[in-house]
What does this fold into?
Amino acid sequence: MTSTARIIAIANQKGGVGKTTTSVNLATALSACGRRVLLVDFDPQGNASTGLGINPKDRQANSYRLITGEVGILEAIKPSSVPSLDIIAAVVDLSAAEVELTAVDRREFQLLDALKLGIPNYDYIIIDCPPSLGLLTVNALCAANRVLVPLQCEFYALEGLSQLMRTIETVRAGLNPDLAMQGIVLTMYDSRNKLSEQVAGDVRQHLGDMVYDTVIPRNVRVSEAPSFGQSVLMYDLHCAGSQAYVALAAEFLNQEKEAF
Ligand SMILES: Nc1ncnc2c1ncn2[C@@H]1O[C@H](COP(=O)(O)OP(=O)(O)O)[C@@H](O)[C@H]1O
Ligand SMILES: [Mg+2]
It folds into this structure.
């Protein structure tokens, strides 16, 4: 069975910028729009798995064992707390892959090769990347068609972005020529803080069209939801954070329509 899924890597080597939150909530919003979605937790911290209610004892078949070939893709896929959203969970063992993979043939393609083997039909596969530009993120970029970058509205937002862009360029040049930018989403925007406004203005000036119109506000409901094992859309659909992720999904789907 070949998959026609579009594969989106959610990447930024900085920690705490909203990668996991965006992965979980964009995936939830897309599945609420009737799309079949698989979320691959590719961060050893396993935050996306926890945030979607996957108990650590139910993670024997995980993304680490998937890329090492110990489990098959069908075994690794689990249903999440969101209907029509499946997940491949992560455990801390995945951090060892960063070193172990260096000695492996096609080390950059372990995730791609695993995903290609008999994956069921999904519309989207979303990969939540770890906060580094090491081999795990490179594997995600080699498996992906598109990269979506969350940028936190803070003073150092743009710092580090050029390094990420260079990595994407290197992967495109040598390993995955089809890789393209999906977009940049501003996260944790605080309307009471002048700095947020300035940073958002700066980012739009530098990156223009690449930046989504939708801005994700800082919202306490967004940060509460993971402790209930739920995406914020399931936890409180009407809060500002959920509504922003619904708007982001709509913008994303529009972009997809234009791309075909
Ligand atoms: N829009 C938001 N409003 C409030 N808190 C947020 C928001 N987005 C993310 N957070 C919180 O910020 C922290 C970092 O977000 P996370 O998505 O885990 O970042 P990353 O995956 O890039 O490390 C988490 O505690 C998360 O709950
Ligand atoms: Mg994360």
Remarks:
- DSSP finds twelve helices and eight strands in the chain.
- Strands lie at 6-10, 37-41, 77-79, 85-88, 124-128, 146-152, 180-189, 211-217.
